[in-house]
TrEMBL record:
Gene3D superfamilies on file: SecB-like
Protein name: Protein-export chaperone SecB
Family: Belongs to the SecB family.
Pfam families, per the entry: SecB
Keyword Cytoplasm appears in the UniProt entry: no
UniProtKB keywords: Protein transport, Translocation, Transport
Native organism taxonomy: Bacteria, Pseudomonadati, Bacteroidota, Flavobacteriia, Flavobacteriales
Source taxon at top rank: Bacteria
Length: 127
């Protein structure tokens, strides 16, 4: 059985962010959530890859869209087998997602609105 390569989270950052507060007296009934995770490999970086989340969130109080990036590094050179592995397709997303959740909840509090916390997500079910 082949050993899974070790991965390390190197950092996170927000690539894009758009926020609009709405001045509405309507109660917050439901937040529309659209979040798309994907993995990006740069051919010039043979031991690094990015997990990205494009998200749009809308309710009666705010509209928020963002692109959140997490950078991972590996011990070994990335090959095609690694790119399609469960480590990348499931585990990397699961490792990165709490950072997105934390950013959004902290941002919402600092924006002066009630904390918005993304629900947990099981990436293995998406498979």
């Amino acid at each position: 059985m082949k050993r899974q390569p070790k991965i390390s989270l190197e950092g996170t950052f927000v690539q894009n962010l758009s926020f609009k507060r709405k001045h509405s007296d309507e109660p917050i009934l439901e937040t529309k959530i659209a979040i798309s995770p994907y993995v990006n490999f740069d051919e010039e970086q043979d031991k690094k890859y990015m997990v990205m989340f494009d998200g749009k969130f809308e309710n009666s109080l705010f509209d928020l869209s963002l692109q959140f990036v997490t950078i991972f590094s590996t011990e070994e050179t990335i090959d095609e087998e690694f790119k399609t592995s469960e480590l990348v397709r499931v585990n990397s997303l699961a490792i990165a997602f709490p950072f997105v959740r934390s950013f959004i909840s902290t941002f919402s509090i600092n924006a002066g609105i009630p904390p918005f916390i993304l629900p947990a997500y099981n990436f293995s079910e998406k498979e």
